[in-house]
């Protein structure tokens, strides 16, 4: 079944996903984005069973739980119930982050991916990491080294005008927790690879480079520089 890509959230910007105290939450419900490719399109690097479970079960759960948490937050906000507003922050961060992260992740992958980036992104990688090989080695090491569950990221530091590599625990969203603008995310939760690679995370990391969508990453880089 073809999964055509839809907007990450029909509710607006990702800034609304984790609602700070005193702010209104989004008015529309978040929805699960379609994929721009079949579940089996990334084989043999990521198999269809993983992609189907990851997208239709795991990501869908984050979306559903985010909507529930936002509804409860809206009610607490209307009542002036600050205690409940505070208690809902972890759920908003976890499920909102899961929705943000996976929405980026699906577009970062492509059956026509792999190889190396071109143009401005490649020049920036060489400037900030010395070479593409060095960058690839560093992001792989950071991703493999995440303790438990989390993400490895290539982000853009807008203040310093340079690329940075970072790791985030659990579903912490990169921009919301570090200020870096996300360009490329690698999901290292076990649900992203265990059915195919068991507990050998380095093998999954080696394989995923074959399906990285550098056009998408380059587009994100160009957009965040504007």
Automatic annotation (TrEMBL):
Catalytic activity of the protein: 2 superoxide + 2 H(+) = H2O2 + O2
EC number: 1.15.1.1
Molecular function terms from GO: manganese ion binding; superoxide dismutase activity
Domain Manganese/iron superoxide dismutase N-terminal: 29-110
Required cofactor names: Mn(2+)
Annotated Gene Ontology cellular component terms: mitochondrial matrix
Gene3D superfamilies named among the record's database cross-references: Fe,Mn superoxide dismutase (SOD) domain, Iron/manganese superoxide dismutase, C-terminal domain
Transmembrane segments: none
Known partners and oligomeric status: Homotetramer.
Protein name: Superoxide dismutase
Protein source organism: Taeniopygia guttata
């Amino acid at each position: 079944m073809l999964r055509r890509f839809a907007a990450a959230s029909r509710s607006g910007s990702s800034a609304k996903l984790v609602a700070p105290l005193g702010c209104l939450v989004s008015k529309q419900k978040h929805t699960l984005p379609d994929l721009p490719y079949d579940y089996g399109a990334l084989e043999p690097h990521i198999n269809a069973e993983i992609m189907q479970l990851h997208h239709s079960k795991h990501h869908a759960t984050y979306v559903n739980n985010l909507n529930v948490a936002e509804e409860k937050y809206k009610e607490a906000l209307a009542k002036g119930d600050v205690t409940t507003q505070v208690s809902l922050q972890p759920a908003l961060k976890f499920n909102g982050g899961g929705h943000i992260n996976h929405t980026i992740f699906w577009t970062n992958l492509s059956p026509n991916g792999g190889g190396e980036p071109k143009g401005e992104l490649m020049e920036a990688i060489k400037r900030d990491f010395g070479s593409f090989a060095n960058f690839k080695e560093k992001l792989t090491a950071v991703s493999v080294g995440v303790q438990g569950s989390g993400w490895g990221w290539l982000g853009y530091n807008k203040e310093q005008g340079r690329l940075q590599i970072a790791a985030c625990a659990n579903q912490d969203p990169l921009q919301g927790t570090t200020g870096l603008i996300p360009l490329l995310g690698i999901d290292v939760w076990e649900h992203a690879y265990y059915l195919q690679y068991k507990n050998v995370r380095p093998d999954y990391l080696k394989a995923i480079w074959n399906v990285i969508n550098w056009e998408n990453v380059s587009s994100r880089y160009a957009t965040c520089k504007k």
